[in-house]
Amino acid sequence: MIDAEELRRRAQELLAAHPPAATDRLDFLKARFDAGLAWVHYPAGLGGLGVPRSLQVVVDAELEAVGAPDNDSRRNGIGLGMAAPTILKYGTEEQKQRYLRPLWIGEEVWCQLFSEPGAGSDLAALGTRAVREGDEWVVNGQKVWTSGAHNSRWAILIARTDPDVPKHAGITYFVCDMTDPGVEVRPLRQITGEAEFNEVFLTDVRIPDSRRLGAVGDGWRVAQTTLNNERVAIGGMRLPREGGMIGPVSRTWRERPELRTHDLHQRLLKLWVDSEVARFTAERLRQQLVAGQPGPEGAGMKLAFARLNQEISGLEVELRGEEGLLYDDWTMRRPELVDFVGRDAGYRYLRSKGNSIEGGTSEVLLNIVAERVLGLPAEPRTDKDVAWKDLAR
Questions:
Q1: pLDDT (tens digit, 9 = 90+) per residue, 122-147?
Q2: Which of 41, 45, 249, 357 would suit a FRET pair with 141, their CA atoms being 20 to 30 Å apart?
Q3: Helix (H) or strand (E) holding 177
Q4: Alpha carbon of residue 89 to chain centroid
Q5: Phi, psi of 10 (to 5 degrees)
Q6: Is 230 among the catalytic positions?
Q7: What is the DSSP letter of 293?
Q8: Strands 110-113 and 154-160, how do they pair?
Q9: How far apart are CA 342 and CA 326, in angstroms?
Q10: At a CB cut-off of 8 Å and minimum separation 6, what does 359 contact?
Q11: Which residue among the candidates 108, 196, 230, 297 is catalytic per the annotation?
């Protein structure tokens, strides 16, 4: 039986065998993965020990106390939060062994090829085609809003493999090598000036069948695992008190008393309380995950995340007055990660506008909460039994 004390002992053994000050960063992370201390709830041999997810904090605390390197999770959020749990659930043993270790240590960054110009909120309407030729699939189509595609080695991809069945039934899930011929990444410049998102064009990209996740035609079910984990990854991240967007505006309030008004005080108090409620709700959700895969409840957390970020950043701009209208840098850049708290108030205000779109629009998530969490009647659908090729487009 592996308990908290045993995990502490194993963490100390890792530190003794690989002193962080004298060990190359990647070598230390590889040793941590091999010791089962990467994500402890994963199976033995895949970076874990098969123990409850809640015990991860025991390992993290031991390693953080001595300044051991981490795997820079923000840089590979899609890989860690979305690709890894999907591979764990649906991947073959060969796929798990090939992808999970370099993914966790950060050697290979992942992106997500889901949304398309004509299939965003209605993702199941996607038109990217994958046609089988022997042991390979030939993929043609266009994806959009792909975060970090310019830095990624691998992508999780869903494509239509059968246009003669209803849209949810004819989709298959693949792992796509972003360095393969026919994969073209183009930057999408955003309102912030940056291009963290991309368009990805796929032209006769050949994907071996060995890189398929799940059964042919079962991609929508596999994708639900990815999407449920995505919403938890975005809205259910672990934060300290005044972590996230509420932190900078709270500091400004304390340090700049000349900016205060009664109305702003009341609004800040409400948003501070709402942030704490969201933080504790996220903690409860993470505890529920110990029992299994995330369900539709993560949609509620992602909804709260988007609303709070937009309201808090708007309050911060208003609190700062003329200063809030300034913007530090409009230079076209292709960043490796999104840093909400490391930039100025103007950046936070503009970037948070995307929070209600990325990871599922707020409108779609409201439907998910209504139908799959609250059990309300589903909206009428006229396309449920219509073959994808016969849908109006």
A1: 899 999 999 999 999 999 999 999 99
A2: 357
A3: strand 171-177
A4: 17
A5: -70, -35
A6: yes
A7: S
A8: parallel
A9: 15
A10: 230, 231, 234, 235, 302
A11: 230
